[in-house]
Amino acid sequence: MAKFVSIFTMRNLLVLSLALNLSLIMRVTFEGGKQGFFSVEEKHRGPSMAENKEEAHATQRALLSLSSSSGQDGVEKVINLDHGDPTMYEKYWMKMGERTTIVIPGWQSMSYFSDVKNLCWFLEPELAKQVFRLHKAVGNAVTEGRHIVVGTGSSQLFLAALFALSPKDGSQPMSVVSAAPYYSSYPSMTNCLKSGLYNWAGDARSFSKDGPYIEVVTSPNNPDGFVRHSTVNRTGGILVHDLAYYWPQYTPISSPADHDLTLFTVSKATGHAGTRIGWALVKDAEVAKKMTKFIELNTIGVSRDSQLRAAKILEVMTDTSQNLGSSELGESFFRISYHLMAERWELLRAAVNNGRMFSLPDFAPGFCHFLQQETQPQPAFAWLKCEDDAVEDCESFLKGHKILTRGGRHFGVGPKYVRISMVDRDINFSLFLKRLSTIQS
Ligand SMILES: Cc1ncc(COP(=O)(O)O)c(C=O)c1O
Ligand SMILES: *[C@@H]1O[C@H](CO)[C@@H](O)[C@H](O)[C@H]1NC(C)=O
Ligand SMILES: *[C@@H]1O[C@H](CO)[C@@H](O)[C@H](O)[C@H]1NC(C)=O
Ligand SMILES: *[C@@H]1O[C@H](CO)[C@@H](O)[C@H](O)[C@H]1NC(C)=O
C-alpha cells in the first residue's frame, strides 16, 4: 500500500494519467507472465511487474475511449453514476469461475415450501446456514437468538418490517423517520401505497411528534458513509437497522451488531444485486412471524433458486475469507475488494484535492476486527459537495458535464450535494475521474 499511497497523493492528474499509461505499457509488456484479476493482492505478494492482463486491457480500453470516442475534452459519453449498481465486483467473481456455479435440475425447488418447521417457512435451510456462517466469520452481527427472514432484496424486508412494527389498530399511521441525509428510497417506499399503517415523517433530527415511531438507522449511511446511531431516542421508538454496507470493504468492522431488527443484503455485500436476496436478523419471534406473513401476502415466499445461488456465493465468500493469512490470501473477497475500494478512494481524493470546486467527507479510521488492522471508511458512494459559489445545483452542474448523479434533495438535504456510485466498472470510474479533473482545470 505504501507505494500506492505515494503514487496517488500527487496533485496533478496529468501525471496520474501518465503513470497509468506507463503502468499500462509495463503490464502489456509483461503480460506473458502471471495471470489473474487480483492486481492489488499481487502487489503484496510479488514483483509489481506481474500485474494482471485483464486489468491492463480494461485500463487500455478506458484510455482508448478517452482519446477516441469521447473526443479531446472527453465529455461526449454520458457516465451514469446515479444508481449504486455494484458491477465492480464482476471481475472477482469471473476469476472464481466454476467455484460459484450451481446446477439446479428441472425437478428441484418446485414446491412453494422450503422448510415448514421454520417460522420463515420459505427460507432455504442452506441459505440460513451460510448467512450464520458468514456473520460468524466476519464478526459483523450477532446471530445467536435471532430468526432469519429472507426477502426479495432487503427492499422487501424494509416494507415487511414497517408492516410488522406498525400497530394494526392505531388511530393514526405510525411515523417513519431517518436522519437526513437518508437513503432516497425510504420516503418513496414508505409512502407508495399511502398505507393507513405507517407514513414517512422525514428527517429524524427534526421529528417532534408524540407517540410511537420507527427510526431507520443506516450504518454506514447511504449516501454519506458515516457510521450512525439512533437520533430520536424517545420511549415508544422502534429501531430498524439497515446494515447493507456493514462489510469490511466499506467500513471498519468494530463489533458484531446486536440490534432487535437488522437488515442485510447480498446486493452490497457480494455485488449480486440481481439475485435479489436480502435477510433480516430478528430478535422477536412475533415480529419475524409478521414479516413472514407480509412476504406471504406479497409474493408467497422468495425465489428458492435465488436463495440457493446466494447460499453458494456466501459459502465461497466465507471459505475465501477464512483463509486470511494463508496461501489463499490472494482470493479473499473482502481483502481484495477492500483494496480495490481503497485504490478508488485514493484516486478520487487526489482528483478532488486537485482543485477547489469540490469536497468530500472526511472519515476517522478505526480498527477492523475482521481485517485485523486499522482501516479507513471507504463508502460505496461518494457524497460530493460543490464548493463553488457559482454552482447552486451540483446535480445539474455535473449533468452539464455528462455525469449523472443523484442530487441532495432526494436525500432530504440541499442541492449543493450529490451522491456518486463508487462501485461501477473500472472503465466508467476512470472516465469519471478524468472528467472530474477536466472540470477543475
Ligand atoms: C441502505 C440501503 N438499503 C437497502 C438497499 C436495497 O438493497 P436490495 O438490493 O437488497 O433491495 C440499498 C440499495 O441501494 C441501500 O443502499
Ligand atoms: C495516455 O494515453 C492516451 C491514449 O493512449 C493519450 O491520449 C494520453 O495523452 C496519454 N496521457 C499522457 C499524460 O501521456
Ligand atoms: C459502463 O461501462 C460499460 C462498458 O464496459 C458500458 O456499457 C456502460 O454503459 C457503462 N455504464 C455507465 C453507467 O456509464
Ligand atoms: C441517542 O442515543 C445514542 C446511543 O444510543 C447516542 O449515540 C446519540 O447521541 C443519542 N442522540 C441524541 C440526539 O441524544
From TrEMBL:
Ranges where the Alliinase C-terminal domain occurs: 79-439
Needed co-factor(s): pyridoxal 5'-phosphate
Range of residues in the leader sequence: 1-19
Keywords, ordered alphabetically: Aminotransferase, Pyridoxal phosphate, Signal, Transferase
Alphabetical list of InterPro entries matching this protein: Alliinase_C, Alliinase_N_sf, Ethylene_sulfur-biosynth, PyrdxlP-dep_Trfase, PyrdxlP-dep_Trfase_major, PyrdxlP-dep_Trfase_small
Pfam family, one: Alliinase_C
GO molecular function: carbon-sulfur lyase activity; transaminase activity
GO biological process assignments: amino acid metabolic process
Annotated family: Belongs to the alliinase family.
PANTHER family: BIFUNCTIONAL ASPARTATE AMINOTRANSFERASE AND GLUTAMATE/ASPARTATE-PREPHENATE AMINOTRANSFERASE-RELATED, TRYPTOPHAN AMINOTRANSFERASE-RELATED PROTEIN 2
Subunit structure, interactors included: Homodimer.
Identification of the protein by name: Alliinase C-terminal domain-containing protein
Organism name: Rubus argutus (Southern blackberry)
